[in-house]
């Protein structure tokens, strides 16, 4: 069992930045690939970014590529999402998720993840 707690959301103006954090407790954090997803009202949950267990490879949705950066610190059992140049369309609840396995490719579907955090609200005002 892995427990994930996301934090760092808030209200920011267009063009601003936020850094989300997701702390994990339970089983060995380094055995899991991590991902960030988001869900806006009335929309399906969508992939934002993913990072493999070692942190050596990261993957991004086209809509955030060049603006968002995912990283992890296995010593701190934490994954981060640095969000820059935020746009109104980035407004959503952001969820972190863990997918078991030391795989070397990205995981893009919510169905591929085993554990989920509670979500943190990001609101970008124009």
How is the secondary structure organized here?
Layout: E1 2-7, E2 10-13, E3 18-26, E4 32-39, E5 46-51, E6 58-60, E7 68-73, E8 78-83, E9 92-100, E10 115-116, E11 120-125
Parallel strand pairs: 2-11
Antiparallel strand pairs: 1-3, 3-8, 4-5, 4-9, 5-6, 7-8, 9-10, 9-11
Question: What this model shows, in words?
Answer:
- This protein is mostly beta strands.
- It is 0% helix and 52% strand.
- The chain is built from no helices and eleven strands.
- It has strands at residues 2-7, 10-13, 18-26, 32-39, 46-51, 58-60, 68-73, 78-83, 92-100, 115-116, 120-125.
- The strands form two sheets. Strands 2, 4, 5, 6, 9, 10 and 11 form a seven-stranded mixed sheet that branches.
- A hairpin with a 6-residue loop joins strand 5 (46-51) and strand 6 (58-60).
- It is globular.
Question: What is the structure about, briefly put?
Answer:
The protein is mainly beta and 126 residues long. It has no helices and eleven strands.
Number of strands: 11
Which structural class fits the helix and strand makeup?
A: mainly beta
- Describe the sheet with the most strands: 7 strands, mixed
Distance between the termini: 40 Å
Number of helices: 0
- Unreliable stretches (pLDDT < 50, length at least 5) are none
> What is the H/E string?
EEEEEEEEEEE
Strand content: over 45%
> What is the global morphology?
globular
Mean pLDDT: 95
Kindly state the percentage of residues in helix.
under 10%
> Taking Cα atoms only, what radius of gyration do you get, to the nearest Å?
13 Å
């Amino acid at each position: 069992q892995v427990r994930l707690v996301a934090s760092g959301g808030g209200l920011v103006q267009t063009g601003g930045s936020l850094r989300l954090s997701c702390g994990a407790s339970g089983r060995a954090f380094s055995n899991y690939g991590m991902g960030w997803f988001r869900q806006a009202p009335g929309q399906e949950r969508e992939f934002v970014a993913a990072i493999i267990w070692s942190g050596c490879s990261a993957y991004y949705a086209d809509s955030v590529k060049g603006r968002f950066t995912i990283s992890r610190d296995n010593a701190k059992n934490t994954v981060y999402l640095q969000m820059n140049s935020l746009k109104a369309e980035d407004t959503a609840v952001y969820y972190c998720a863990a997918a078991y396995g030391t795989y070397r490719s990205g995981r893009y579907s919510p169905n591929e993840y085993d554990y989920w955090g509670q979500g943190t609200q990001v609101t970008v005002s124009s």
